[in-house]
Target: Cation diffusion facilitator CzcD-associated flavoprotein CzcO
Amino acid sequence: MTSTLDEPVPGPQDTREVGVAIIGSGFAGLGMAITLRRRGETDFVVLERAHDVGGTWRDNHYPGAACDVQSNLYSFSFAPNPDWPRSYSEQPEIQAYLQATADRFDVRRHCVFGAEVTAARWDDDARRWDVETTAGRFRARVLVSAAGVLADPRSPDIPGLETFVGTVMHSARWDDGHDLTGERVAVVGTGASAIQIVPAIQPHVGSLAVYQRTPPWIVPRTDHPVSPRVQRLYRLVPGFQRLVRALLYLFREFLVVGLAKDRRFLEPVGRLAEAHLQRQVRDPRLRRALTPDYTIGCKRILISNDYYPAVSAPNAELVTAGIAEVRPHSIVTHDGVERPTDTIVLATGFHVTDLPIAERITGRDGRTLALVWDAGMVTNRGSAVAGFPNLFLLVGPNVGVGHTSMVYMIESQVAYVDDALRTLDAEGLDALETTPEAQEAYRELVAQRSRGTVWLAGGCGSWYLDRHGHNTTLWPDFTFRFRKLTRRLDRENYVGTPAGAPVRTPEVAA
Model:
């Protein structure tokens, strides 16, 4: 592949030829781009719809936004940061880290900003991906989707929401110019974003109504500043920071025993959460409303030291009756109570099991990825789909984790995809495609390991499960086992088409 560093961004009628087109510049997209740069590959572009790198950590800049995984683990293994100011980083620090890492490995020059992918179609004759974006057209040998599952906000279907005359904003599309001081604010949702937003805005608003459908399990946040002395030690002895990272990984990995193997190991975590609630909420009625009725871990375990005090504050109210409708100036709940409202904050999550990018990617037979996945998302190792040659997914189905750093899983997948790219070159292939048998075997592996886990048998509904009740989001086992599965390409589960040879589909090969 030849360098494209000096080639112009294509105009409306031009098509730029590239070796690899990567969609998205969050942790996954940058991780893929950096891996290519580190081995000397330059014939690639990163198609980013926004105007800076960062992905989730660029878009989610709501008040209180922070990570619930320690900084030393929630970062690239090849790019440790000795200067993290706290054990758990806040959004601006993570975004700055991603920007600095992109600059350090010189991948920003490969980024095409303002390039939202509107369509990507496989051309079987040319054996290329035709990619249409808001910044022009690209033709790529390989397409890597690193769009992620926390990219597109989900808005709830609430009657009358469109009639509200005040401000409505999703947590992932926060309006920094809107002043909440003294306003009557409604926060819809009590997930990971909500429990950070609520304490951040509660001291400033006039009144705060938190609309809760299901209470989360919350444990203390063991956050603390990182002293200059420790930062110096990290810089002088990088091995010490690697050791801290390894210990954090092992500690968090132990949670899998309770989540996926034997729920009795979750009991100490449950007792910790119960004690945290008892200690911070004195009102018995409010405490009952905040107590989950499902096994801890069924939904993501959240961490916070200030959410409970915030919803207990005199100007705050926990609303559990459920929203019946939104009116131009108020919200009405099913118990008939109408609450005057100035601003509605939707902390209602993302399109996770129905990825919007899947509607824009069309494979060999003219079907979109969304249509192929209508009965449930299925892949080989979360990375490849039969009928979509030379397409690879990062942060795809069953790659999510509820207990540790997503970056660990991303690095595992990047290694797998990079091995596939090397295989294409080494064998002189035009196309590489996984087989239906391989992805069905992988689906059964995931289903088998999901049985009996807290996510399926913990008594809750969550965004981990699709509309069929299947776990298509989480990896249901130890993450080191996922890394072993993705350490290198399982070449026996792929059909390759040599350059110039007739197309060989997996169905023909079977």
Remarks:
- The chain has two domains: 16-152+351-498, 161-224+265-346.
- The domain at 16-152+351-498 is CATH 3.50.50.60 (FAD/NAD(P)-binding domain).
- Residues 406-426 form the longest helix (21 residues).
- The chain has 16 helices and 20 strands.
